[in-house]
Design brief:
Number of helices: 3
Radius of gyration: 16 Å
Distance between the termini: 27 Å
Strand order of the largest sheet: 3-2-4-10-9-8
Strand content: 25-35%
Order of helices and strands: HEEEEHEEEEEEH
Length: 197
């Protein structure tokens, strides 16, 4: 996770450049490309919290080990952004919803799965060099690709009880499920995504 604004800006520029260069198909427009977010996933599924959430489905095998401490055991929904070990918060009614499919990659991907939206598709994008048995000459691998119409909106919100509240990207899906991702540049990225839609 980026700890300073200049570092977050630099990572954002790299993500944008690499996705344009290596991931987008001819004529496809990038709406938003999220950076890697190193931290745990909190899943609120039909009112029941799993923290840290473990992927329920098989996801790509990522090299390396988790590098961050466990989150506090008694984190409340309103407080998750105050725990720096939590990178994502997912809200869904059922395990079949879009946000839960995404949560599996975010939890199983050890912070390497990147939520990426274009005018054509929503996908989880991994750097190939971080996947076991992949050809490092291929920059990215794409998983769980869905039509972009599954995304109702991308926005920025401020969450948490700390002052100042933390900026967070909010993906709301057509089925009503939601993914929140901690991101220092959430407001800038949400405005840019809105201008590209």
């Amino acid at each position: 996770m980026e700890n300073t604004l200049p570092m977050a800006t630099s990572v954002d520029e790299i993500v944008e450049r690499e996705l344009h260069q290596y991931w987008l198909a001819p004529g496809e427009r990038l709406i938003i490309g999220c950076p890697p977010a190193h931290g745990y996933v909190g899943l609120l599924l039909d009112g029941k919290l799993s923290l840290s959430y473990e992927a329920a489905r098989e996801t790509p095998a990522v090299t390396g080990k988790t590098r961050w401490p466990l989150p506090a055991p008694d984190v409340l929904e309103a407080d998750w952004t105050d725990d720096p070990t939590i990178a994502y918060w997912i809200i869904a009614r059922s395990a079949e919803q879009t946000a839960v499919r995404i949560a599996d990659h975010l939890a199983g991907g050890r912070g390497e799965a990147r939520l990426t939206l274009s005018d054509r598709r929503l996908a989880l994008v991994y750097p190939a060099r971080m996947l076991e048995g992949e050809d490092p000459a291929q920059p990215f691998r794409t998983f769980d690709e869905m039509p972009s119409s599954v995304v109702r909106s991308v926005g920025a919100v401020y969450l948490g009880r700390s002052f100042p509240a933390r900026p967070v990207l909010q993906f709301v899906f057509a089925d009503g499920s939601v993914v929140f991702q901690r991101d220092m540049l959430a407001v800038t990225k949400a405005a840019r995504a809105d201008s590209r839609r």
